[in-house]
Amino acid sequence: MNVEMSAHQQENLVEIQDLKKWFPVQKSFLDQILAGRKDFVRAVDGVTFNIKRGEAFGLAGESGSGKTTIGRLAIGLETPTEGTVRFDGIDLSTQNEREMRHLRRRMQVIFQDPMASLNPRMTLGDSVVQGLKIHYPEAAEKHRDTLLEIFERVGLSPARYFINKYPHQISGGQRQRVVIARALITRPDLVLADEPIAMADVSVRALLLDLMVQLKQEFNLTYLFITHDLATAKYICDRIGILYLGRLAEVGELKEVYSYPLHPYTQALMAAVPVPDPHKRRTQPMPAGEIPNPINPPSGCRFHPRCPIAQAICSVEEPELRELRPGHLVACHFAEKFL
């Protein structure tokens, strides 16, 4: 039994179980009295998945589906309303502030907008070395060498030239490399990459993705990769989860989900990916309408108001994630028709 538990913990670096995060809607006192209830934004509403050690797990979906909130919950930046998040077998909800700080060196973030996440009044070197000063103050004499090494590893060469620059003095692609360097300087196990190339020029996105793949192998990293772009996810992810309105619609190996999308929402996202061929036109209609209000989500299957194959049961009974192909789970009452 202990051997089985040990092997299970070694396989999964992150374990998320029945995770919920509801944010209270801010109202005036009078509005609360008239409404007679307290409303919540159900950003994440019952999500379960694991991230294996050394893999890149992607979360994809429209804006407002809960991707970033799950990422923040996974590294302890938010407290769950319900459910558990375990990192390397440790329940984050049981950790005090001191214990969480010790864990933080093993969990880092690559933010979407480097101009917003870098201090404009700090040099690039000072911004990146800050993690070492916080987590490894006892090795102060080695900080500069570590800083120069990580700048070279992310392609900022010569490093001595870049460490004294300020964010506004370098290009957008170079700023994103600085953010990657800052995330990796503490040698983390888990990296939350939240739309890491969304703000970069199209011409450098492939270079940044190549860099992330290379660094994953060199540093033995585990990625939680958040994106709305399925073409980007295809380049870097090993497994992927498709989110819709705070719930998982489909989970599986990336090649499996791309080759056999079983949920109508996943099929719609796949159809929206541009194909570099002017003779190929989209034949599948896009879902009507927009993503519903997370304060008052639809009953039953949350996708049913926009689903082309919805039937009466879809508006009443919420589908559970079930395995229809090996390792391929889908939350749809009628997914068998796509097998």
Look up the CATH topology of the domain at 1-237. Rossmann fold
CA radius of gyration is 22 Å
**N to C succession of SSEs:** HEHEEHEEHEHHHHHEHEHEEHHEE
Helix content: 25-40%
Structural class of the helix and strand makeup? alpha/beta
| CATH superfamily membership of the domain at 1-237 | P-loop containing nucleotide triphosphate hydrolases
Determine the N-to-C terminus distance: 37 Å
How many helices? The count is 13
Give a quick account of the main beta sheet: strands, pairing sense, barrel closure: 8 strands, mixed
Parts with pLDDT < 50 across at least 5 consecutive residues? 1-9
The level 1 CATH classification of the domain at 1-237 is Alpha Beta
Number of strands: 12
Shape: globular
Residue share in β-strands:
15-25%
Main sheet strand line-up: 6-7-8-3-9-10-12-11
* CATH second-level architecture of the domain at 1-237: 3-Layer(aba) Sandwich
In round numbers, the mean pLDDT is 90
What is the topology?
Layout: H1 2-11, E1 12-24, H2 29-35, E2 40-52, E3 56-60, H3 67-74, E4 82-87, E5 90-91, H4 97-104, E6 107-110, H5 114-117, H6 124-135, H7 143-153, H8 159-162, H9 172-184, E7 190-194, H10 202-219, E8 222-227, H11 230-236, E9 239-244, E10 247-253, H12 254-259, H13 264-271, E11 322-325, E12 328-330
Parallel strand pairs: 3-8, 3-9, 6-7, 7-8
Antiparallel strand pairs: 1-2, 1-4, 4-5, 9-10, 10-12, 11-12
Helix pairs in contact: 6-7, 6-9, 9-10
